[in-house]
């Protein structure tokens, strides 16, 4: 068996340490991928610094990470889509409560990935480019296509216009970059928000109109943009997005549904030495106020809301729709681009901590990537 190495979170709130790790073979419906690049998501540093409050089921030592790209080294029983040596990207789901497994964390040399959460990548696409996709793509897909969320038409290479318009609040985020493209490929017009520096970026991805989410008049302006259109619902990404989307959806005709990607509290100020329980207690009034005001406003206005859990598609047909039916051909034909662009912090698992720290500081339309 190959020897494995991982970027371990040895205990809650510790810094990452690189040490040897067991190699876990593929079981039924699984593949093992030798990772050539991994990328960092906000949930990685949030779990590192606030683990027991977010993913209470995690037992330390643990291996974090959702996004990987590399080559298949082993295929399990019942796997027909992949062969050894194939170049792929994968969404590793080790932190999902139903998996709860370090073998399925991305931040190591060899990761076990569910077959329905992986896709081949074109021969001319670098691992560093491909690895920006998985969690952002999955999260956007859960919000847009799951029947318990916006339940939009599925994406295809020949999208038929639906005549409806989707609001993606936070289009320049990693989740938003995927959501815009997926919605366009499903036949929807997209109106979005970002900072002015990213207006051209989100338009290139396909948004028809974009508004500055920091503008005092943004909610009014977006409502105006929806005049005469039928809203397909809203995907709320970023702090304050749920409240804004609720007001906009209320004022529009169409699907009264807000699918929410972002926690109502910020974890950005948490450090290694932070008292996490105190931090949480101090934010409790904000969380309670968010919960109560969202509940009251949505009930009175008859708007449905639901929080996204970005790995939930692994349990339903949306994973197949995205990772099997749509993505491989769409990447091959250039109908879907790997966005946002990768920013490579270094080569080697030793750079995972630097990557986590950089993502936590805040990024703009880039994905923090570590080459392996
Ligand atoms: N529920 C889930 O399963 C799940 C999964 C993945 C991510 N998420 C959440 O989704 C959000 C986005 O994650 P990500 O990885 O896509 O983030 P990201 O790429 O790291 O986000 C960076 C972007 O956030 C934008 N931004 C900052 N504040 C914003 C605000 N108030 N409203 C709208 N946009 C804002 C910035 O846009 P400008 O530079 O244009 O200002 C920047 O480009 C995070 O809250 C994350 O925790 C949830």
SS summary, helix count: 10
**CATH level-4 homologous superfamily of the largest domain:** NAD(P)-binding Rossmann-like Domain
The arrangement of helices and strands along the chain is: EEEHEEEEHHEHEHEHEHEEHEHEHE
What kind of assembly state do the chains in view correspond to? single chain
- Provide the low-confidence segments as ranges: none
Question: How much helix, percentage-wise, in residues?
Answer: 25-40%
- Which cofactor or ligand species appear? NADP nicotinamide-adenine-dinucleotide phosphate
Query: How many distinct domains?
Result: 2
Q: Tell how many strands the DSSP assignment holds.
A: 16
Descriptive notes:
The chain has 372 residues and is an alpha/beta fold. The protein contains ten helices and 16 strands.
Can you lay out the helices and strands and say which pair or pack?
Blueprint: E1 4-8, E2 17-21, E3 30-40, H1 42-54, E4 67-75, E5 87-91, E6 110-114, E7 118-120, H2 127-130, H3 134-145, E8 164-169, H4 174-185, E9 189-194, H5 199-205, E10 209-212, H6 218-225, E11 230-236, H7 241-251, E12 253-254, E13 257-260, H8 276-301, E14 304-307, H9 318-332, E15 341-347, H10 352-361, E16 366-371
Helix pairs in contact: 1-10, 3-4, 6-7, 7-8
This protein binds NADP nicotinamide-adenine-dinucleotide phosphate (NAP).
NADP nicotinamide-adenine-dinucleotide phosphate is lined by residues 41-43, 135-136, 139, 169-170, 172-175, 193-195, 198, 213, 237-241, 261-262, 308-310, 363-365.
